[in-house]
């Protein structure tokens, strides 16, 4: 990933990258299959303590041929954090052009298929638990709600896998290359707009400036 110096995370902020990945777990996995680039959108469990750069766990439909690339070359998993359009009208400096502020993390590693049924069930439980936690006070749905026969059919229809990460890269493009007046103007304008993403980017801009 191209990361100009002003937009790089400070050294030693690996946990911040993990936080972004965990907060935005619906990612894009890209691999090379038979010489062609293929991608799939999927929710991911982030295990930050497994390995020096963490491990990702996920599953896809067995009918999706992308899993046939697992165990071969390196995969890229893209996590898109908060993002927002920036209008030149919000800058104190004249003559600037539109841009987009955003936070993103790229994670790299070789996927490997998980065959053990207990580990597959643990993955499914972790995925649903992470998503259900955001629906409180609704009682969380669990795998125990499925009849045994349906559970078996579901397991036969998916391919579970994990990616021990070899490296992770982060980028936070938050107008750090602009003046304090420009940053304040953009942050104020975004903070006044509807949409959680706009307000989140405004907060991130002010935090990065400080």
Summarize the structure.
The chain is an alpha+beta fold and 210 residues long. The protein contains 5 helices and 8 strands.
Strands, helices and their partners?
Elements: H1 14-23, E1 26-33, E2 36-43, E3 45-47, E4 55-61, E5 75-86, E6 99-109, E7 112-114, H2 117-132, H3 148-156, E8 158-173, H4 180-191, H5 196-209
Helix pairs in contact: 4-5
Order of H and E elements: HEEEEEEEHHEHH
Query: Compute the gyration radius: what is it?
Result: 20 Å
**What is the beta-strand fraction?**
25-35%
Task: Kindly name the structural category.
Answer: alpha+beta
Number of separate strands: 8
Question: What kind of sheet is the major sheet?
Answer: 8 strands, antiparallel
What is the typical, i.e. mean, pLDDT?
94
Shape: elongated
Distance between the termini: 25 Å
State the share of residues found in helices, binned by percent. 25-40%
Low-pLDDT residue spans: none
Q: Give me the number of helical elements.
A: 5
């Amino acid at each position: 990933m191209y990361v100009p110096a002003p937009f790089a995370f400070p050294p030693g902020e690996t946990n911040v990258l993990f936080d972004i990945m965990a907060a935005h777990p619906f990612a894009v996995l890209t691999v090379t299959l038979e010489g062609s680039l293929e991608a799939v959108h999927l929710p991911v469990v982030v295990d930050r303590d497994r390995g020096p750069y963490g491990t990702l766990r996920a599953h896809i439909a067995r009918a999706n041929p992308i899993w046939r690339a697992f165990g071969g070359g390196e995969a890229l998993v893209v996590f898109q954090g908060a993002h927002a359009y920036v209008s030149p009208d919000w800058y104190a400096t004249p003559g600037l052009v539109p841009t987009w502020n955003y936070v993103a993390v790229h994670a790299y590693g070789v996927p490997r298929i998980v065959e053990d049924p207990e580990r597959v069930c643990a993955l499914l439980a972790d995925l649903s638990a992470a998503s259900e936690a955001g629906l409180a006070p609704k009682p969380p749905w669990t795998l125990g709600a499925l009849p045994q026969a349906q559970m078996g059919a579901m397991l036969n229809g998916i391919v579970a896998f994990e990616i021990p990460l070899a490296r992770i890269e982060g980028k936070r493009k938050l107008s750090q290359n602009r003046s304090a007046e420009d940053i304040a103007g953009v942050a104020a304008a975004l903070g006044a707009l509807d949409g959680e993403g706009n307000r989140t980017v405004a907060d991130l801009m002010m935090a990065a400036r400080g």
